[in-house]
């Protein structure tokens, strides 16, 4: 979470010059909403093909985000599409592999350039999502995306905060790197990611006169409701010179 999966995919598709369709899943996603989307036109509700169906027809890349949030019975219909190239839609139409559209009535032929990229967080606390990898991981080419190494993260942060001193960036990277290590070891619940550091740096870039400790506190204040986590986070930040967060 927060490691830049969407940014990475967007940049990849930009370099490949491939158009994309995007759909974000959630706990209330149904098979119907995965294949059809409701729109309001001239005061009337009508249903159009979802991003999934449009990508299949046009040969775009479909990016499915937050796949672990949807019920497994919903995401499992993607298995049929990936394995066999077929899927029955809720309105009776059928997606068929390339070259078979003429043989199947009321069908949508899959474009040869259609590709599917699925983004999901790992199962377990604190994500509380479904184990997408266990259900569908065997039909995808899976890649685990972690936080960047310290030097790469500093380079990334410089793009968001070119005026922020390099010493400040290094302090943040080192502090959050230690927090992530504690999260990996199970001592902290939340996996402090690059996303939080980027938020801090963007704020410091715009308001350089503000104290860094206060800015860090604004991003991590939810920890104050967890005394044990607050104590550990405070100790790590103080170790790296961010003292007033503990006050």
UniProtKB/TrEMBL annotation:
Pfam families: AAA_5 (PF07728). One of its GO terms (molecular function) is ATP binding. Residues 1-140 form the ATPase dynein-related AAA domain. PANTHER family: VON WILLEBRAND FACTOR A DOMAIN-CONTAINING PROTEIN 8 (PTHR21610:SF9). This is C12.2. It comes from Drosophila melanogaster.
């Amino acid at each position: 979470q927060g490691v830049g999966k969407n940014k990475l995919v967007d940049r990849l598709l930009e370099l490949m010059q491939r158009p994309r369709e995007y759909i974000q899943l959630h706990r209330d996603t149904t098979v119907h909403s995965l294949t059809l989307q409701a729109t309001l036109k001239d005061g009337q509700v009508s249903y159009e093909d979802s991003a999934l169906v449009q990508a299949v027809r046009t040969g775009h890349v479909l990016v499915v985000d937050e796949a672990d949030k949807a019920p497994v019975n919903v995401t499992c219909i993607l298995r049929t599409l990936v394995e066999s190239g077929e899927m029955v839609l809720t309105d009776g139409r059928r997606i068929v592999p390339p070259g078979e559209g003429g043989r199947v009535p009321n069908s949508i032929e899959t474009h040869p350039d259609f590709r599917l990229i699925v983004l999901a967080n790992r199962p377990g606390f604190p994500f509380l999502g479904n184990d997408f990898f266990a259900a569908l991981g065997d039909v995808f080419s899976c890649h685990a995306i972690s936080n960047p190494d310290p030097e790469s993260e500093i380079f990334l942060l410089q793009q968001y905060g070119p005026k922020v001193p390099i010493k400040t960036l290094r302090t943040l990277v080192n502090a959050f790197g230690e927090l992530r290590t504690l999260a990996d070891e199970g001592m902290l619940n939340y996996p402090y990611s690059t996303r939080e550091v980027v938020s801090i740096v963007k704020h410091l870039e715009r308001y350089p006169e503000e104290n860094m400790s206060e800015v860090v506190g604004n991003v991590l204040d939810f920890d104050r409701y967890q005394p044990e986590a607050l104590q550990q986070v405070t100790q790590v930040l103080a170790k790296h010179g961010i003292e007033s967060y503990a006050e």
